[in-house]
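[audit] Reproducing an earlier prediction to check determinism. Same input, same settings, fresh worker. If the tokens differ from the archived copy the diff job will pick it up downstream; this log only records the rerun itself.
[audit] input (142 residues):
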Amino acid sequence: MRKIHSLILRTIIKIYAILHSLFILYTSFFGVLLAGIQRPLHLMFLLPLGFLLYPANKNSPKNQPSPMDYILSVLSILVCIYVLVNNQRFMSRWLFVDPVYLLDRISGIISIILILEATRRIVAPAMAALAGISLIYLYHER
């Protein structure tokens, strides 16, 4: 995990993490939200933290995120916002009847790649590889 020296970035990350903790406490006391809302909200809080706090590899800067880390953080927030905005359409969609739009597929693929990258950084490369191989197997065994 990075030791961030920038006071501004460190404060932003702390506030962001505290907001996520408050969201968890809120849903603990007042009940969980719909799955289509709660899951993207969790990802919207946790994925950017994973990209900002964990370096991509051993050559990455140890005391500050790289520009690519910022891009991945913003992209993960945007993908989650897309899911939240289109939640009603996703929830009322009839499988195999209603069309899956191109932007839905693109956002889904980007989400999978971002989650695999965050898993590689935070947990272990082997876990991300295992998940990726499982997804490829599921896709080709239809």
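[audit] rerun output stored. Observation attached for the diff report: The two ends are 39 Å apart (CA to CA).
[audit] end
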